[in-house]
Amino acid sequence: MEHIDQSKVRRARKRIELIKNWYRLIPVYVIGTFTMLGLVYLMRLNDEPNFILIILMTGPILWWVFFIVQGLNLFGKMPKFMKNWEMRQIQKYIKRERVQTDYQ
């Protein structure tokens, strides 16, 4: 049997754990969404102000957007413009530091 690099094994285990946790969150998001939608429905019956309903509706929408982006990132399906975002940010801050040190 071939010698397997321990760092690769650790990375693979960590990735598998992240994927398992992502799948575990699906019921939490579904229950949370239906709870929030139920609250919105009950508040709508009581003629609550619209801004409260809008606030309650944005919660599930943002949850699902975050959840989908997290899943895309986890499974390596992120759009090309988002893949290099971290590296661009690091380069931007390094450049900014160079400019600041040049002026001092």
Report on this structure.
This protein is an all-alpha fold and 104 residues long. It has one domain. It has helices at residues 6-45, 50-74, 80-83, 85-103. α1 packs antiparallel against α2. The longest helix has 40 residues, at 6-45. The radius of gyration is 22 Å and the shape is flat.
Give the CA-CA distance, first to last residue. Answer: 59 Å
How many strands in all? 0
Contiguous uncertain segments of 5+ residues: none
The average pLDDT is 81
SSE topology sketch:
Elements: H1 6-45, H2 50-74, H3 80-83, H4 85-103
Helix pairs in contact: 1-2
Task: Provide key terms for this protein.
mainly alpha, flat, 104 residues, 85% helix, 0% strand
Offer a concise description of the structure:
It contains four helices and no strands.
